[in-house]
Amino acid sequence: MKEQYDICIEEIQQQASAWVARVFSGNASQKDEEALELWLAANPVHKAEYTKILGVWDSLHEASRPETVYNDVSETVGATKRLLGNWRAQLAVAVIFGIMVFSAALLMTKRPSVDGTFVQTFATDVGQTKELRLDDGSVVTLNTGSRLFIDFSTGLRRAILDRGEAYFDVVKDPTRPFVVTAGMQSVTVLGTKFNVHRNGQRLTVAVLEGVVAVHENIEPAKLEENARMLVKKPGETLNVDFQHYRLEAGSVGTFEKSAELVTSVATADTLSFQTWRQGVVRFNKSSLSDVVKELGRYAPKSIEITDPSVAGLNISGVFHFDDIDGILVGLEAMLPIRIIETDDQILIVGRPQGSE
Questions:
Q1: Which of 91, 160, 243, 301 could form a disulfide bond with 149, CB atoms 3.0-4.6 angstroms apart?
Q2: What is the pLDDT of residue 91?
Q3: Is 309 in a helix, a strand, or coil?
Q4: Segments in the chain forming alpha helices (H)
């Protein structure tokens, strides 16, 4: 069953919540305050949603009047900074942020779209993969425990990877760039094949064919204006005012907040980032701890190594992740470990010397 959400409003509300939480954490820098001013000035809706959240904060802590409407950006930021002096407000950061996230979740499932356009939502359960054919002919494959929003209502083709991993085979359309947003970053393409894995705010992009541009999240209107320039041919001048990284076929990029690492790898290695589409996971001299972390994405129960002495054992091989029990039996036969299964957990311990 397809669900419908108003993603644009929900995104802005989440961004506003994140800004309030960052400022009230007590660790906001001058650079953060300047970035907040730019964000507030970029769109009147930003200031409106930010003010609403300040109102919630005020009503909870009586730090100021919830009805206050701030007249300009500097006054809005100033009001936030004045509230920082209230130690009770700082102490309640975790509580208010939880309320914000909960409210955003309610809005996602119940709020109608403002302009009458809706987006599609697709998700997979743990251990499940799903292939989707989009309206433009592009094909997306979702890996285990993933959720994806699709919005083709504007001049852009937009996909928002809320969690998990997806492989994109994008049909070329020079008039409508395809943009994948995941956490703090976005990936813009015209037509290509690439894999995106989101782990919290950490994003890994592996490009099999074509070229992509990875960049910070920017306003949809600004992105639509600049998207075509992001995927110009090598040597052509790019005239965009935001940081971006160009990844061509055979490249893997890992991005996490402001720290970026771009590494070129062999094409064969790039292919290994999407073996999950064939239902297998591949390991090459991987540590048991890394193997357990990967298998945990597909297992119905949590898997935990309780004996640190076995965490570094090396493993190589190809395993079908639809048979987690069979994989664990195989690991127990190959390695000096024992598998202990409880009602809700799988524990891995070292096997005593001399035991079979």
A1: 160
A2: 38
A3: helix
A4: 7-24, 30-42, 44-61, 73-83, 87-91, 93-110, 220-230, 267-271, 288-295, 324-334
Beta-bridge partner residues of 302: 345
Euclidean distance between CA atoms 58 and 143, whole angstroms: 42
The residue among 349, 352, 351 whose CA lies nearest residue 303 is: 349
What is d(CA 333, CA 337) in angstroms, rounded to the nearest whole number?
8
Measured between its terminal Cα atoms, the distance across the chain in Å is 50
DSSP characters over 91-136: HTHHHHHHHHHHHHHHHHHHPPPSSS--EEEEE--TT--EEEE-TT
- Residue 336 tokens read as 């000096």
CATH code that applies to domain 279-350: 3.55.50.30
Which of 99-103, 142-146, 151-155, 213-217 has the weakest average pLDDT? 99-103
- Give Cα 184 distance to the centre of its chain: 7
- In tens, the pLDDT along 246-269 reads 788 888 888 876 545 656 555 657
Domain 119-271: CATH class, spelled out: mainly beta
Cβ atoms of residues 293 and 315 within 8 Å: no
Give me the half-sphere count of Cα atoms (radius 13 Å) on the Cβ side of residue 14: 16
Domain locations along the chain: 3-110, 119-271, 279-350
DSSP for residue 176: S
3-state secondary structure of 50: helix
The two tokens of residue 321 are 């992740």
Q: Say which residue, 3 or 39, is predicted with more confidence.
A: 39
Could you give the residue ranges of the DSSP H alpha helices within 296-346?
324-334
Distance between CA atoms of residues 105 and 110, nearest Å: 9
Residue type, 260: E
Those residues whose C-beta lies under 8 Å from the C-beta of residue 107, and which sit 6 or more positions away, are 6, 9, 10, 13
User: What is the 3-state composition of the chain as percent helix, strand, coil, each rounded to the nearest 5?
Assistant: 35, 30, 35
